[in-house]
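Quick one: co-fold with heme C.
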Amino acid sequence: MKRGASLVCGVILCAGSASADYWALPIPPQGRAPDDHAEPTRDLSPAACGVCHHKQFREWSSSLHAGAARGGVLGQLPAFDRETRVACLNCHAPASEQQARFLAAEAGAVQSLSGVDCVACHVRGHRRHGATHKPITPHGPVEALPLFRDSAFCSPCHQFPDWGERVKGKLLENTEQEWRASPYARAGVGCQDCHMPDGSHEFKGIHDPGMTRKALGVAVRRRRQGIEIRVSNIGAGHALPTYATPRIRVVLRRGDPPGEELVHSIQRRLDWHPDLGWTEPADTRLLPGRELRLVLALEPGEDATAMLLVEPDALYHEQLYPNLLETIGEDLGPASLRLLREAQHRTGRTGFPLYRAHCPPWTGRETACAIEPGSGHRTR
Ligand code: HEC
Ligand code: HEC
Ligand code: HEC
Ligand code: HEC
Ligand code: HEC
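Sure, here it is.
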């Protein structure tokens, strides 16, 4: 495999852990439905579960888990060998049936799969599993597994194993370890507590402005010497952001009309060089509880604005997809190329302004400047 594509690659089997058996990947074929399963429950597609589990289906449909196996992933797979394709699909579409459908089709013919779906998390050999035991349902007894309330449930896909790919000594995906080192783990607040409040299946993360606002504490002040912003990670149970793909820009800008700017990126910054592979020029992410403080000097008569801009897919848009098109583009047919170009385009449009604040000229005493949520306009 060419290295440009391997940013998020790793084959996960958390051998020896409680989840090893449940999370054997790919998920083995389900086989035949048991006879005691009522007819509508023999169909394992998310829409079929949704006939009875409306709420979970509606919420999941809006989540990134539902979009985990679409163009950006599937478009590049034909350039790789079978083993690599399966390794990628193990996190993006873990069920054997989905993988078989993709692997048997011509390159570019299957443009999306149901991704990280109900089967991926709940069904093994047609048997349903969940957090609580339900003795009688149209699909037989639901088996309770403590794993459903454990952060380890999410790790096969959100934590690379020790031997996974590292840049500057750090794993490319290290969410569970970051969480374990945080006060949240000690307080017993796990992934599900924050990402599945009241059982929600929307799995909101950094692509969602409301969720991202929960992560960030922001204070902006007009001081004698200028405008000061403090940004802290008050609500993410891991590094903010946990992955190398998003970027959060903090912008302090002098005056109206806009003058000089001070721009700081909160980001694990990776750069791709054809000879060196990935390098990490900077890691300015905020661990839980950590604060960033920036000051832009102003004359007493000057006013200023502060902005926080979130680009959840910066690395994909600016480096990963362009690199892929350059390095493997010629190995791909027109249908796959189109999928990758669409993904490059889409990932350039997921940004949003998070907060905006305006500070007046110096009035003789220090003031807190009013902060408004971003207007919802995309940054690009
Ligand atoms: C014909 C209706 C029907 C269909 C279709 C159906 N279920 Fe269920 N399911 C139920 C009922 C009824 C219960 C029991 C609910 C209760 O007791 O609170 C249940 C319980 C569950 C539970 C345990 C819920 C809990 O409260 O702990 C899970 C998990 C589950 N189903 C998953 C699925 C999945 C995944 C699918 C699709 C592959 C599916 N179900 C399809 C009717 C259905
Ligand atoms: C250990 C699990 C895991 C493996 C293995 C894995 N991925 Fe991913 N991948 C993820 C996760 C988690 C994300 C979401 C990261 C985020 O929040 O942006 C992701 C995101 C992506 C995206 C971004 C999708 C978009 O929005 O455009 C692409 C493309 C992708 N992966 C391709 C691949 C390819 C190709 C492989 C195999 C070489 C692979 N992945 C292997 C877990 C994995
Ligand atoms: C990424 C994994 C994941 C996916 C995908 C997923 N679930 Fe769940 N589901 C869970 C977890 C974890 C819980 C337990 C949450 C808890 O108790 O905190 C759960 C709980 C449930 C429950 C019990 C509801 C409750 O509030 O007690 C039902 C029913 C259910 N899921 C159905 C579905 C259906 C239907 C789908 C597909 C449309 C689906 N799930 C997709 C992980 C998942
Ligand atoms: C089978 C693999 C798998 C499992 C298990 C899994 N995820 Fe994911 N998750 C993914 C992939 C792949 C993506 C990215 C989809 C994409 O963008 O292409 C993702 C995306 C997400 C996102 C959206 C991130 C963003 O960038 O906004 C959140 C939040 C998330 N997962 C939380 C969880 C939690 C919490 C659990 C455990 C309850 C869990 N996931 C279990 C594979 C998985
Ligand atoms: C204390 C609450 C909290 C806990 C615990 C928590 N998260 Fe998050 N998570 C957030 C918030 C808030 C965001 C949005 C801001 C951000 O991206 O950090 C987020 C973002 C994410 C993202 C988006 C991608 C990115 O680069 O940030 C993923 C994936 C994710 N969390 C997975 C997990 C997993 C897996 C766990 C458990 C090991 C977990 N989270 C534990 C609150 C939490």
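If it helps, The radius of gyration is 23 Å.
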